[in-house]
Design goal:
Number of helices: 7
Strand content: 25-35%
Helix content: 25-40%
Distance between the termini: 72 Å
Radius of gyration: 30 Å
Number of strands: 14
Largest sheet: 6 strands, antiparallel
Number of domains: 2
Order of helices and strands: HEEEHEHHHEEEEEEEEHEEH
Strand order of the largest sheet: 5-6-7-8-12-11
Length: 305
């Protein structure tokens, strides 16, 4: 009991020689409307012998949090956490010593400290990469990939890698699909990551000299009627008064019947219904063939819709 009291006395003695500081971190986070808003992280207590040591401990905390944010951001497109931008270090008198702190070799010490922190491995990425490897292995073991069919269909498609996407996305689009919006078109396309297909999409482009502002499409396929209401239709104009309207939407299970009907159609038309007017257009055999081949390629690579 006596030894414990002595030990407690020395701990209290050490603590009494240290000063108490409040570390407050300022961050920014995207609001619901996409604007940046400033948030304050809950304060933490730092105990140190003097201001210089306290400041370097605070700076280390800040660098670690910055590194953690960057690591998570590298793995996820939308990290969902606030980004550290600066910090305050409040002493007992209420002064922010981070504003005026200065001591010998402070800049070189900060540089060395920051460098050592940012050289650390991105653990989040390593875990994500391992999970991705497991997902790929599980996917390939659970689905039937038709390599012969893929080889047969590939000449009809352009496969372009998105050079700005860190996941290595490759877009598979029919070669007959236009590169620009100012052409009439109807086609399906999708992407793959590490050979795994996903995000099957339908795109419709209307190009003319008068506006429709269409918000609904009715199909007549081999005498059967279908209706599709896009979530968002965009518009643009140029080239001497020419206009174009289009939608580009992800397809799910609820759209399977429409897609299969289009892919196997003997004859098909579509009515683009606008605010006041409508336009009926014939779906060409090339468009039907491309939709069929896109669905076949998607399935051959292991996709399901």
């Amino acid at each position: 009991m006596k030894i414990k009291l002595i030990l407690l006395f020395f701990i209290l003695l050490v603590l009494s020689c240290q000063k108490r500081y409040e570390y407050i971190e300022l961050r920014t986070k995207k609001s619901f409307f996409g604007e940046s808003e400033r948030v304050v992280k809950n304060s933490e207590t730092i105990r140190a012998k003097n201001d210089s040591i306290a400041y370097m401990e605070a700076y280390l905390k800040f660098c670690i949090n910055e590194k953690m944010f960057e690591d998570i951001e590298e793995v996820f497109d939308n990290p969902g956490i606030a980004k550290p931008i600066s910090f305050k270090l409040i002493d007992k008198q209420g002064n922010d010593i981070a504003l005026f702190i200065n001591f010998d070799k402070i800049d070189s010490l900060k540089t060395a400290l920051r460098s050592s922190v940012f050289k650390m491995e991105n653990i989040s990425k390593r875990i994500a990469d391992k999970n991705r490897e497991s997902e790929i292995s599980e996917f390939k073991n659970s689905v039937r990939i038709d390599s012969q069919k893929i080889k047969e269909l590939e000449p009809y498609f352009n496969a372009r890698r998105d050079e700005f996407d860190t996941r290595g996305i490759v877009w598979h689009k029919p070669k007959s699909a236009p590169n620009y919006t100012n052409r009439n078109a109807l086609y399906c396309y999708f992407y793959s990551i590490d050979g795994i297909p996903g995000n099957l999409r339908l795109r419709l482009q209307y190009h003319d000299d008068s506006w429709l502002f269409f918000n609904k499409v009715q199909f007549s396929i081999d005498g059967k009627a279908f209706e599709f209401i896009p979530m968002n239709t965009e518009t643009d104009s140029g080239n001497g008064g020419r206009i174009w309207e289009w939608f580009d939407e992800s397809m799910g299970n609820t759209n399977a019947e429409l897609l299969n009907a289009l892919a196997n159609a003997k004859s098909a038309k579509m009515k683009l219904i606008g605010r006041q007017y409508h336009k009926i257009k014939t779906i060409t055999q090339t468009q039907i063939d491309d939709i069929r081949r896109t669905l076949e390629l998607y399935k051959a690579m292991g996709g399901n819709y």
